[in-house]
Amino acid sequence: MCVGLSAKVVRISDGTAVVDAGGAKREVSSELLEDLEPGDYVMVHAGVAIAKITEEDDEETDQLMEELL
Amino acid sequence: MAPPVRIMEVCGTHTHEIFRLGIRKLLPKQVELISGPGCPVCVTPVGFIDEAVWLALQAGVTICTFGDLVRVPGTKMSLAGAREKGAKIQIVYSPADAEKYARLHPEEQVVFLSVGFETTTPSSCLSVKKAKEEQLENYSILTANKTMPGAYEALKGSADVFLYPGHVNAITGTALCESLTKKGVSGVVAGFTAKELLTALAVSLKRYQEGKPFFVNCYPRVVTAEGSKEAQRLVDELMESCDSEWRGLGVIPDSGMKLRKEWEMFDARVKYQIPEMEGRANPACRCGDVLQGKCKPSDCKVFGKVCTPQHPVGACMVSNEGACSAYFMYGV
To answer: ipTM of the predicted structure?
Structure first.
């Protein structure tokens, strides 16, 4: 139940967003995020988009590893 | 050789991903990974299941719940057992679905089992707000919502480094975890992909060897310092903190959330005057010790024998995020 799902926003209307998570489309609440646009990536938890995210993990991890080494 | 280090995966999804990706096998033997209390189903005490069973059988309400709560054993029975006795149990994906079910079934009284950490609580609050807007009188929630800070404090002796649950920090921000370094508690916020987990572990080891308490946000693509202001505002509008019982950890002051007085018509405990339940877990089950990192699932006598995912004795074997379920599934 507590697993977060990253998904791409397909459509938005009136506090609700249709998101695409690996091909599966689902309606989620977008009430907690302002300025959401189709094409944005979000983290979904229990039917609510809780955070806007970037698509890939590469950049952040590369940067952290660079600082480390 | 470097000194041994105990790293606690607070989040159940971290535990599972680390197993699934085979990361445990890559680590040197002085790095010990301990599973923590970060699976909401697992830390929900037996008494909560008893309350839900009472609501379903004695008060005759329809229970809407996340699927993994259904098989968690109560003192006498699980919700699955109650269903065999005629209780109406609906499995939902989200609190919004529970509220929708109530709207479409005005002839039924509907209670959503509101378990979860900071990540799930906003979702429950949104459903209550919507029920109020729609003037639904047949929807309420049974709260067992929990907040992590008290658990970090309660567990600070159990681990050298915490892998903080990335999505909790996406809501709360990072100020609290940063301030824990003043109390000697170290940790990193970790994401969930292979690269993110390996990076978080590498940063943990490097910084631990430097010898000073530390905090690093290793999941900046999702987690910001201030967190989600909207979610924080919403939860603060509807809920206030309360003492809360955690399976294995006992009652931790101010570690739970309940609806504020002005929203109590949506609080199932108030609405149905549920009698106090003193839940009793199966004495052979060591979920409590597992959740505190005091023992590994495989140290429990019933693990894998009497207690399996098909016939769970304790909550940590039921939920997909539970440590016992992970150990069983990946054959440790």
So the answer is: 0.86
